[in-house]
Specification:
The complex is a heterodimer. Chain A is an alpha/beta fold. Chain A has four helices and five strands. In chain B, strand 12, helix 6 and strand 13 form a beta-alpha-beta unit. In chain B, helix 1 runs parallel beside helix 2 and helix 1 runs parallel beside helix 7. Classes of the chains: A alpha/beta, B alpha/beta. The interface between A and B is medium-sized, with 27 and 26 residues.
Amino acid sequence: MSTLAIEFTEANFNSEVESSEVPVVVDFWAEWCGPCKLLSPTIDAIAEKYKGKVKVGKVNVEQNPSIVQKYGVRNIPNILVFNNGNIENQIIGNVPESDISSILDKLI
Amino acid sequence: MKQKVIIIGSGPAGLTAAIYAARANLEPLVFEGIQPGGQLTITTDVENYPGFPDGILGPELMDNFRKQAQRFGAETHFKNVDKLDLKNKPFVVHVGDERYESDTIIIATGASAKLLGLDSESKLMGYGVSACATCDGFFFKDKEILVVGGGDSAMEEANYLTRFASKVTLVHRRDSFRASKIMQNRVLKNPKIEVMWNSVILDMYGEPDRGGLTGVKIQNTLNKESFKMDCDGVFIAVGHNPNSDLFSNQLDLNEKGYILTKEDTSHTSIEGVFAAGDIHDVKYKQAVTAAGSGCKAALDAEHYLENL
């Protein structure tokens, strides 16, 4: 688990993500998912680049089944970008940093 | 600064080329691409790579390859090459805003999972349709799912998915599998797997914003009859396409997009550009053959640089 990205859980998902005033990047991952591990440095880079402007965090799909259920996540890596509590965008699979930046640049 | 060797790709071919090039003091630079470690990073147990009598996890094997290359001075980057200019020498590699020059290029970009090519499939990708069983199997606990394909990947995925799914139906367009016998037997003996021979998927049903995939339309290829079948997930394992977009109009390729190499070597149609692994292997496509061809490419590059 990286230090830059926040850990989102069932306990804090509403306050940290759904009620957030700034856009939020949520990376759904699991320990056994190879591509998720490869995406991890990219997520850290995004957290660093947008520090103060965008919240960046991760959801462990094994530990947070109700979030997985609520947002119908069936593939990981899976990035949901929230803005004002709504899903602004969804990216499935391991993608380069620029794919995520281009979405965020339009929101801030 | 001009490089001696730039390697594009980081599967068994690219990283073996990196090990050999690094040991030849060529200080290779490796651009790992969008799937660092290559296709093995989305498999589970690799049981046919020699030297591991008890098998080894794919991602772990590829971490070892990378560490071994780094130990001898290979520089590896989790970056993707955007553009390649092979017309003039030194060759030019563009990575985002960065520009690199190199005397030789080893191309080991590998292959990507092929899809069926249905509109409904691309629409539902990520909403019940998947090309990575190890990533997504978890989401199909006690669900009924389909696996499409007849090769080793399809067998492995079907078996793996029975850990989660209540039932796996393996849909295959022919009446026999091309998979290795050991993998076929595991599937045929698995009580949770049912094989649907001579069958193809014609369409998929469901909407991404309304729960995703709900079922598929299957056709029997012999009597052409089609029917609808409910399912919660479809995993596609119908083979691979070579990743040749970067150089498709610069190097000689075969009709399917694989790089043509000169007999028994890794030489491509441009001197100083070498190919290794699945990007030029139309026949074997194994981790161990990819590693072998990565070694050949590095030795060919070394020889070429000596005579420059």
